[in-house]
Amino acid sequence: MHDSIHDVDILLVEDNPDDAKLVIRALKKCNLGNKLIHLTDGEQALNFLFGKGEFSEREVEEDKPRVILLDLKMPKVDGLQVLKAIREDPRTRVIPVVIMTSSAEDRDIVNTYNSGVNAYVVKPVGFENFSKAVAELGMFWLLVNQTAK
Amino acid sequence: MATVVLMVLPGMRAPFQEASESKANQVKAVFLYNFTQFVVWPQHIFDNETSPFVIGVLGEDTFGPYLNEVIESEEVDGHPIVVRHYKSITAGIDQCQILFIDSSFPAARQAIESLKGKPVLTVSDSQNFMRHAGMLRFYIEGGKLRIEINQEASQRSGLEVSSKLLRIATLYKE
Amino acid sequence: MVFRNLPIRKKIRWIIMLTSAAVLLFTFLSYLVYEVVTFRQTYVQQLYTLARIISTNCTAALAFDNPDDAAEVLGALKAEKHIVAAALYDKQGNLFSKYPQDYSLHTVPQDQVQFQEDHRFEESHLIIFEPVVQNNKTLGVFYLKSDMDAMYERISLYASIAAAVIAISFVVAYFLSNRLQRSISRPVHALTSTAKTVSEKKDYSVRTTKTGNDEIGYLTDAFNQMLSEIQTQNAQIQLFNQKLELTIEQRTHDLATANKELEAFSYSVSHDLRAPLRSINGYSGILMEDYGHLLDEEGIQALKSIMRNGMRMGQLIDDLLAFSRLGKQHVAKFNLNMTALAKAVYDDLKEQYGNKSEILINPLPEIKGDSSMLRQVMQNLISNALKYSMKRDKPVVEIGAYRENGGNVYYVKDNGVGFNMQYYDKLFGVFQRLHNVTDFEGTGVGLALVHRIITKHDGRIWAEGKENEGATFYFSLPVT
């Protein structure tokens, strides 16, 4: 499925393929989407991160994504549960997590920050704004921010 | 009532003085008149309604003017009172209703005898008058003029002496 | 002890006793007056008779000047103990005889001697003049003076009998009234104690026993009936209350459910409605960016329409969400510098509206309020003012405030297109617009939001306007 699972920069967890395509397009426009992995639900994301199921052969410790872009509303395991699992496990605790979602509900913002999210971004509806926001996001987390090993 | 002759004179209450003989006579005159009020004579003694009521004085007239003054314009039951004077016992004395016999008159006894059975009130101030069967006698006691009555004598003559008069008089018993 | 505060049984007793005493007293008094009057008349007659007898017996004494006899006659008066004095006067008014013999005090002066039969009461004595007459001849006058002790003795005897009778009847009345008042006071007392039980213990099940068919009996019936009715009504009210509580519980539950559903609804609106919109916008953008050169002018315009409407729908959703979120939002009140707030809002907006308006911000008084909410208010009102006056040659916007009825009134005034007061009712409604979208953009939620915020602050909002002459929006906020 994914040939190059080593040296992952961005892990995108997004169930909506249209949204995912927009994000990937925007990142690629500024050459940030080359080492990107797109997973379509929470369960898959957890398997990827903890080397389970289809990702059982993966070297989890060695190959951590530099940032996780996480959708909140997803089937099976939602974004908040994924976030909690990431922060509970010492192997993944240090990975920056950015929530990218459609809603700006207070309780979502409060809950995710309480669970240790690094940023909360509402996806703009307009195309230009959206592209701009995603590009800035990629730039910040991959070029400006320093992550722990 | 103002026309009524004085019957009770002023000074009467004063002690009777023998010296003032005229005063005593004055009182006697009043008493004589007053007898007409206290003695009742029989109805038939008057001839008619205008016949006078006669007070007779036998013997010396000691009353002077007093008696006339007392009886002036007085009447008894409508009969005018008149005073008549007699010097002696005459036939006219039995016409009197009251006969005063003066103490100086010597024949008082005979006069009474002559009036026996006749309704004539005999009065005198003589001491022996009652013994001669006289009816009324004046006498002095304690300086006052008093009356003595012989009731039997007056009754025999058909005269009725008021009990009021009897009350104040001394009764003589024969 | 005030009479009106006495218990009824004592009142009745007093009424009976006092009434009987008053009646008795009055009766005795009238009898006494009658007695005094008749006694005096009788006594005068008696004394005249005595005087006539004496005077008749004195005629001879007067006529024949015999005071001793007169004294004797007068001495007979000794038998009459009430005779104080007697005297015999002669025709001239001179004293002839007197009784008692040593009585020197009371001889009548000569000029006061009367010869007419006459009597008078003098210093509680009765005095009589009786002429002494013999055969119509007046001989003098008899004077007789008697004390009135006989009458006083009689009055005092009478008074003691009256006192005794009144005292006895008082006692009798006391015992009688004690027995008789029970027929009135007992049922009244029963009523009172029932009423007391009712008012103190709120026990409406008690009843008073009826004792007769008089007014009190009627009152008892009415009272009992009233209690029954209250009892029934209480039961009904209780039942009703229980029902009401049940209903309220049900409604509360329903409301909570509805609220939850509404929350879920608005959550999905915000989340699920925006996602497809984003795709529409996004892919329209890609189309324009990557394939725009393949489209003719008409195709470009069509694509632009899709993008514009997509944007507009996004704005609509955002506004609507903000409006519905306001419902459950808590108002956090702090002191706000309204002048600074207005200036900041204006600074944010001026670029958007071409920077050509003349703005006049008067000093605004401080107020307690929620800063983010009141910022929204100012933002909406000022942006409206700028928006609707933008097409003027010289747009003027004035912001000010004044005090009225213990509150602050803030206003935002413009010289823009204004509005027709005929449509005033639609001004603050959600999605209500008075202008065409092509002329002035907007979702129609702004003023509804403002209205909701001001209402949440216990304030009031209103507006004045005239077509093509401008509009003024006012809102008042309580000071404390």
From TrEMBL, chain C:
One GO cellular-component annotation of the UniProt record comes to: membrane
Q: Please give the biological process terms from Gene Ontology that the record holds.
A: osmosensory signaling via phosphorelay pathway
User: PROSITE patterns, per this entry?
Assistant: HAMP (PS50885), HIS_KIN (PS50109)
Task: Look up the domain of life of the source.
Answer: Bacteria
Which enzyme class, named as a word? transferase
Catalysis: reaction(s): ATP + protein L-histidine = ADP + protein N-phospho-L-histidine
- Cross-referenced Pfam families, in alphabetical order? CHASE8, HAMP, HATPase_c, HisKA
Entries under InterPro entries matching the protein: BphY/WalK/GraS-like, CHASE8, HAMP_dom, HATPase_C_sf, HATPase_dom, His_kinase_dom, HisK_dim/P_dom, HisK_dim/P_sf
Which GO molecular function, any one, fits this protein according to its record? phosphorelay sensor kinase activity
Q: Which residues form the HAMP domain?
A: 182-235
EC identifiers of the protein: 2.7.13.3
Enumerate the UniProt keywords alphabetically: Kinase, Membrane, Phosphoprotein, Transferase, Transmembrane, Transmembrane helix
Annotated Histidine kinase domain residues: 268-480
Instruction: Tell me where it resides.
Output: Membrane
Bilayer-spanning residue ranges: 12-34, 155-176
Chief localization class?
membrane
Q: What is this protein called?
A: histidine kinase
- Species of origin reads Dawidia soli
